[in-house]
Amino acid sequence: MAQVTIAAATAAAPAPNWIEQVTPMATEATRAAFAGRPGLRVEVVPGTLDPRLNLAPCSKVQPYLPAGHRAWGRTRIGLRCVDGPVAWNVSMPLTVKVYAPGLVARQPLSAGTALLEEHLEVAEVEWTASDSHPFTDAQALAGRMLARPLAPGQAVREADMRRRQWFAAGDPVRLRVSGNGFLITGEGTAMSAGLEGQVVRVRTEGGRTVVGRATADRLVEVDL
Fold this sequence. Notes:
Layout: E1 3-6, H1 19-34, E2 41-46, E3 60-64, E4 73-83, E5 89-105, E6 120-126, H2 138-141, E7 165-167, E8 172-179, E9 182-190, E10 194-195, E11 199-204, E12 209-216, E13 219-222
Parallel strand pairs: 1-2, 8-13
Antiparallel strand pairs: 2-5, 3-4, 4-5, 5-6, 7-10, 8-9, 9-11, 11-12, 12-13
């Protein structure tokens, strides 16, 4: 079960009865993202309301997540008064920090280092510190090269890695188009180098040019 910590509300926040209600929101979002990953720890840190607000007293404040926001990292939470002489609805900054095991550098690593398992160790990592999630499988990183230096204890994330080149211009490649209940495959010739996740053009056997993304060794995923 996820461990959830609620930091103390600041003096500028409304009555603290809403704080405990935020816990299920953070827990639900975390469980959905991590699917019961062991060692999970969540810390919810309320921010402060705009000091220029002059809110009427309220016996019950109901928190909710506004459309387009999620209980992850730096976000905002809505607060509405549901039991008071005057109905009001405001938003407040909220930080949800999620900690879980991840791979970190065991020693200083320079840019260009080809990673080996002995370069890495498992430690608690703040997953919400970056949009790029940390790695958890050392074997999946074996041989991949760093695009930037890492300090000891620093999490190893996808953004730290050099993009892999899956094929070169002129190489034969496999094409794959998938959708709801169907899969179409074909072959063609790459018209440019296929860097991991990058858009690439391919000439099919029939002479057409299609556009897709390089996703694996000599494989291009074509969008519909």
